[in-house]
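Please supply some protein, with fold tokens.
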Amino acid sequence: MMAGETISRRTVLTALAGTGVAALIGCDPIRRTRTGTAATVPDPLLVQVDGGLGVLRGGERLTIPRAVATADGRAVYATAPDGAGTAFWRVDLATGHASTRVTLPGRWLPQAVSADGTQVALASNAETATGGRPDGRDVTPVLIADVTGVRHRFELRGNFVPEAFTEDLAGLFVLEWLPARAPDRYRVRVVDLATRAPGPLSTRAKTPVPPGAEEEMRGDGRQAVLAPNRTTLYTLYTHQPDHRHTRDLVSGRPGNVHAFVHTLNLVERWAYCVDLPHPFGEASASGHAVAISPDGNRLHVVDVTSGSVAEISTEELTVRRTAVLARGTGAGHATAGHDRLFVAAGTTVRVVDVEALRDVAGWSVREPVTGLALSPDGNRLYLGQTDAVSWHDPATGAELGRAEVPGLVVVHGLAGRA
């Protein structure tokens, strides 16, 4: 999830040899069906459907309940009830190879995958770092697993949601919701998997955050994208009334930020927030989207309601420039190519020249867009539509094909790339 760049999930293709059959694991069907039309999808896609995670490959659709995908969309980790335990396995979406299922003790749902795609953090609920406020609780069970089974199992005193792993797999970044029983705000912490103790992050200067200076956020975690080199996680937050960053708390400066990009370094364990100027964060969170360039040097944030676009330098961690595009209505979606940024809202798709940071083309489609993905060669732009995926010429907007996908919720991105 992740969007323009974030995905996850696991291994079933070889287990489903017959078209249209359903494989039952515990009580959960993992379904492999044909799409509703003769059209075949040129590139494998990872999507969300009513029944769970979906993989579109050619004319086939695979639906996997209770699953999470790796950030690059190459694999999926799946879970299913298995007696008193939970079956857990990995599916390679490029080869279709499925790992041997292992049984985890108790009931678990996958929450976060390590950047290298080898380990998964699971919890007993379906909450995610960008999924809104969790229910109140005093204790949070967490399990870390790989294809061989359990690596760590522990309980955190408080209300926590796993977010990401440190690059060395020795730590787990989590959101701690406060107060635990009636949460209304949260802060990012890191759990040392050796000691099982949560603690503060470091500042960008690599010094520990002083006591009382950890940022507490009350807004919406809209979307997260992982850098192409897998070392940094960027999360867009909106609606932060009277928010003060760690740097403001340390210096005593006032703070009142409505939107920012939380930058989490997975290697050095520091966090830094890039503030977004007005009017970002003033309108609905759903109208905001973020996309990272293929080389990882530029991060673009768009607010379709106001038409605002901001370019962030990922090296300097500053807003390099802003511009105003045509306004839109509805949910915002974005994906980036080498020289173009594609932005969608409602039934309109716009093409932005990233050097000039201005609209250069645009077109309308049949139904409101639910997700964007650009093919590896840049020749096809995929759009989520109502119960369908369509693909278009990125230069002209001409529809090149369309496949029915009943129950489609959103297009996450490409899947199964070798």
About this structure: The helical segments are 246-251. The chain has one helix and 34 strands.
